[in-house]
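Hey, resending since the last one bounced:
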Amino acid sequence: MKKILILGAANDQLLLISKSKELGYYVIVCDRTTTNPGLKYVDKHYQVDYMDREVVLQIAKVEEVDGIISNSEVVMQNVAYVCEELGLRGNTLESIRNIGEKNLFRKLQNRIGVFAPKQTDVDTMENAIQAIKEMSLPVLIKPCRNSASRGITKIDSFDESLIRKSFENSARDSWNKKVTVEEFVEMPSLTVIEGDIFIYDGKILWDGIFNDQRSSGAPMVPMSDISPLHLSSEKKNVIKDTVAKIVKGAGLEFGQFNIEMYFTKDNQLFVIEINTRQGGIGVPKFIEQYSGLDYTKLLVSLCVNDYSYCNVLDECRYPMFKYLTRHSVFSRDEGIYDGLYIAEEIKDFVCGIEENFNKGEKVLICEDGTDAVARIDFEFHTLEEQNKYAYSIENYIYPKLK
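The structure tokens again:
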């Protein structure tokens, strides 16, 4: 029986745990709590802090695990460390740092010759102020390590008090307390390209790439996943060539990685970031719905060198014939939640609703991807219907507030 070690048992790890059990593996989890929802499904629980890489390494040695995995970005460097130490399937610590730390990722892009904005590491507020003086506005102040667009502030004009506040927020939200400043790259539209790639045995699978529509109120936060990908063959090839160059330059060898990118007004592909984990908010399920490919099953099985699913990949895929959209509902105002408004003309396309708030609870203005009031799945009958509604969906769905 294969043994797999999973770091964490919270909601983000549930798919990994359930898929491992489905495949018949012995599942061991490191999680310092006793209450996370995944714990009731595992075979063995070590109540330890998985951020302590030496503790995790010793557990992996004692248990003689066949693989280690997580879906929590903050711990992916520890996963890589254990893989290197024990010769397990995975990536080097250096490769994960190259893409997981935003300042190092920009340096990588510049080093290998792909488009990237001007960027500077800053360790004090004074350095941030000086760096911004030497850049073209607007700029972004960002944590070097974080996810879900947390701690990012756009600075449109030189306002020293705002810069100081933004630096403090980024440093607070950064897992390594480091901050970076970079010039803002204008988005020519609110439609970007997002999704997951999968890397193994020198291959990159592209089944998980789709369009993402952003909100004008929070353009840096992913809002609506839209499949199939609406893009010319020429631009799709540019994506494949550029991302493959980054993968090679970073030294990535295995895993599922969430990616965000868009073409600039000068038609250059700007890869905003590559996250060292699966996409959140139901992305793996969304990918399987339109491609037939179960990325989670592939990730878990190949992690322990089980090729049973990999060997039937071509049979799992099917031609795209669904026009799917997964929409995260955000609020532009603070208030008391009173349910969702859904226009009558779009109700027939709704195939799933997940509300994150109960009526009477306080809703905040959207700041990052964790602020979704609800998530709604749609299936349209035609491309024309999808184009009509998906790219202006906030006109048809929004939270009702008191």
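DSSP finds 13 helices and 19 strands in the chain.

Sorry for the duplicate.
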